[in-house]
Amino acid sequence: MVRLAPLAFTVALGACAGRPQGVLNAYQGKIAVEPTVKMLVATTRSGKRVKPGEIFSGERGKAISFADIHISIPPDKMRKIGEVQWPSKVPGDPRRDFVTTSAKVLALPPALELFHKRLKQAKNRNVILFIHGYNTRFEEAVYRFAQIVHDSKTNAVPVLFTWPSRGELLAYTYDRESANFSRDALELVLREMAKDPAVGEISILAHSMGNWVTMEALRQMAIRDKRIAPKIKNVMMAAPDVDMDVFGRQIAQIGTERPPFTLFVSQDDKALALSRRIWGNQARVGQVDPRKEPYKSMFEKQRIAIIDLTSKKTSDPVNHAKFATSPQVVRLIGQRLAQGQTLTDAKAGLGERFGLVATGAASTIGKAAGLAVSVPLAVVDGRTRESIGPQIRAVGTGVGDTIGSMGGVVTGE
Hints:
The chain has 14 helices and nine strands.
């Protein structure tokens, strides 16, 4: 049966093919379209022997590198919320395509200086750090994160951590080792951000295999310091490609002095089923049913919130990136953040609005959906997190299928 894996990858992940090359070449024409997402990038990728139009490749670098990249996004009326509008050819049309307006490689000192400057200029002092998954080229990670930042309308300073994925369907084992290769670097990046006095809060959003490097970095930090850095306030895990048994050990080693963890799940994720087969039929975090033992007790004990997106239909053909591609979810989160509102009741909750399920051991579906979704909403609104924190701890966990995915951004984003 394992012999079928390459064919399954080709069928399920074939959408990765055909992405235009050179999209990070800065657009030379006049840009009249706003807004532009300005992100800082930290990477363990190599900047040597790159192809024309590339900044970093899928090979491993010998040190952490940095960049400042600006992406212009077309008006919402010209695009579908939750999707990246890739140009059919480079450089693209900024009226309807994502285009790069600036891309500069930085050394560490100017990168830290720019990070501090952006925080001082921001409406709040919060940071959102995104870690992509398997089969993701550098430019795909940049454009996907730009879409998430724009569509969520977050005011947090965006930082991308990108590790050496070759962006090839059959390079899974290389990507997994590259994730291991990058865990020390991610821990260092988190430490450097937390040390900046201008930083108020750091929220982490990881997708797919990016959850592995994230968990390892947080575990190492907790072992060294006896806890995760206090400024890290939220850890959001979408489609985590992590063995369930290993995840339990990681959480235990991180300890109880940790921020809230939220898992975004989907039972119809095609990539996750394949991942489980590749790992010898060992349950990935996203494939277990948290309503069943021993998983139910484990999630409740560890106070892990779970959001089930199974009922949501998106443009993602393999149902692997629903957290970013569902227009309704992205819009609702963005609206609540922009309005400074919380999702603490059934009427405002995703459960009633979109049929999502997030239940706890002692709560109704509507109420729990509101509470659980409020955890990631605290990316920008510290008051939200403080007000619902005790309730989240009381609710415990939700129902759904924790997603373990083998593919990072299966569609190459």
